[in-house]
Amino acid sequence: MLKIALDVAYVLMALVTGLLLLLWAASIFIPLDNLNVTVTDGTDGRQMPLTRPLLLFGLGALTAYFGGFLLILRYLRKIFRTLTLGDPFQPDNVRRLRQIGLILAVVTGGVWAAQGMVAARLAPGVMEPQGISDLLTPVFSILVVFVLAEVFREGARLRRESELTI
């Protein structure tokens, strides 16, 4: 059941990422005359003109966000494949888990920086920038992934040792 869920999520994420990439490319040529965007935090809002750099930044950030999670799902599917084969403690899975942790760190940092830029540049006084406390849960999750990678590394080492034992 988990394999099916991973496969479905991967296909959906690939479709969303591909669509966003096409929209990003198309937004280079879309005329933006008299279009406005409203920036709000739920209670107060501010209207501003929609400019091409703003549109490219927004679509590019969304594409990168979903693309990062597409890569994470790709690595999870490969890890799950080794699990179904009965051999999850492989050096490749250690590398995959470390890459997942790195991608999570980059996505988390990117979201934090982008929200800070939006709060400071686009909507000062409307949106509050994220604080360090908003990073606690994502950083904890990233640390869990890196610890899990070390557990897999130790499992791979123990498996290798047991294969050499007569």
UniProtKB/TrEMBL annotation:
Keywords, alphabetical: Membrane, Transmembrane, Transmembrane helix
Transmembrane regions: 7-30, 54-76, 97-115, 135-152
A Pfam family of this chain: DUF2975
Q: What is this protein called?
A: DUF2975 domain-containing protein
